[in-house]
Amino acid sequence: MKQKELAVYLKLIIIIVTIMFLFFIVWFLPTSIMEIIVPNIVPIIIGYLWVGSIPCLLALFQFFKICGRIGNDNSFCIENARGLKKMSLMMFIVTVYGMAGLAIIFITGFYHIYKFSSAAIMVAIVISITLAIVCAALSHLVQKASVLQEEHDLTV
Asked: Structurally, how many domains does the chain consist of?
């Protein structure tokens, strides 16, 4: 697969994932939450989820920009390293945000009432910290590859 084709393919996947994510956050979760959570705290939970989704959407946007540079045959550039670093930061923010939400559930004593929500937050924390680590590692590797490519370009 050529780089232009790969970039288009990746961008298409990002668009589909973003649409599915928005559907999940805007429609599916709120309607599901209304059925299982005490009505007076539903707006708080939905607000918590919507605020927590912002870093995820920003990370998807960063990845979309990286795919554009891949399509322009500029895979190993400092901009991609910075973009991956930003994605790592966004996932770290989601991790901390999830841990704060989980701490609130435990402190308020709602853990035994909202076991499913607590488990879902724990899964989100594991996924987001894993993505933060992977993006940080890739950022470092792309930054090193960028330096090597610049040195190679100067010697040729």
From this structure: 1
